[in-house]
Amino acid sequence: MSSPSTNNNYDGSATENDSSKHHSDAKIHDISALTTVLDPSTVLPIRMTSVVVKGYGRGSKDLGIPTANLDRESGQFSTASFEDLPTGIYWGFCRIGTDDHIYKTACSIGYNPYYGNNRKTVEPHLIADPNDTRRHKSSCGESLLGDFYDQSIRLSLVGYLRPELPFEGLDKLIEAIKQDIVNAEQFGDGDAASIQLEKIWVASDDSAIISKTHPG
Ligand code: RBF
Ligand code: MG
C-alpha cells in the first residue's frame, strides 16, 4: 500500500503533492488548496452511510466507469465530519439498498482535479463479480450496474490507493481508474481480519458513526 504523499499535514497546512509534480504545471497550480489535511491512514477504515444522488453525470458518459455519488447532507461518516474525509482514491466494500450483495469498490473522494470541481464528492465505482453479465469483458472488469439513484448506500473504505491527480488527458484518467479497479479487486480478496470486519459492517445495519461513549 502506498503511503499518502506530502499534501497531508497534521498542523492544518497543505503542501504540494509529490506525485502531481509529474504532471503539467498548468493544471496543478491550485491543487494544494483543495487537498485534505488529514492523513488517510489515521482514519481508515472510513465507514459511510448515505443515499445515492446524481453527480456531475460524467462517470458513465465521459469515462464508461459509472460511480454512485453519496449525498453529503443525509450522509453519516466515521470521520468527525464530511470535511474531514481525506481526499484520495481508496478500495473497500459497498452495499446498495436492501440487496445483500457486497460489491468491491474503488472509490474517489475529492474534487476530481482533472475536471476541477468546486464541490467535494464521494463516488465509489461498484465492481461486479467476474461472472456478472454487467461486468465489462476487459482486463479490468469495470461494471455498468445502473444508477442506483435514491437508494441507500453503505460503504467502508479499507485502504488508500493514491492521491487524486489532474491527469493530462481523459485516456490517462481512465487508464488510472482501471488500474485502481484492478487493485481494489485484488486487495478486496484479502482475508485479513480487518477486511472481514468491514465486510461484516457493510452487511449489517449498524451506524457508521463511532460511538464516543464507552461502558463504565
Ligand atoms: N478524477 C480525477 O480528476 N482524478 C483522479 O485521479 C481520479 N481518480 C479516480 C479513481 C476512481 C477509482 C474513481 C471511481 C474516480 C476517480 N476520479 C478521478 C473521478 C472521476 O473523474 C469521476 O468519477 C467522474 O468524473 C464522474 O464523476
Ligand atoms: Mg457518479
UniProtKB/TrEMBL annotation:
Residues 1-17 have a biased composition (Polar residues). Residues 43-189 form the Riboflavin kinase domain. InterPro entries: Riboflavin_kinase, Riboflavin_kinase_bac/euk. SMART domains: Flavokinase. GO terms for molecular function: ATP binding; nucleotidyltransferase activity; riboflavin kinase activity. The keyword Amino-acid biosynthesis does not apply. Residues 1-24 are annotated as: Disordered. GO terms for biological process: FMN biosynthetic process; riboflavin biosynthetic process. It holds the Pfam family Flavokinase. Keywords: ATP-binding, Flavoprotein, FMN, Kinase, Nucleotide-binding, Nucleotidyltransferase, Transferase. The keyword NAD does not apply. This is Bifunctional riboflavin kinase/FMN adenylyltransferase. The lineage of its organism: Eukaryota, Sar, Stramenopiles, Ochrophyta, Bacillariophyta.
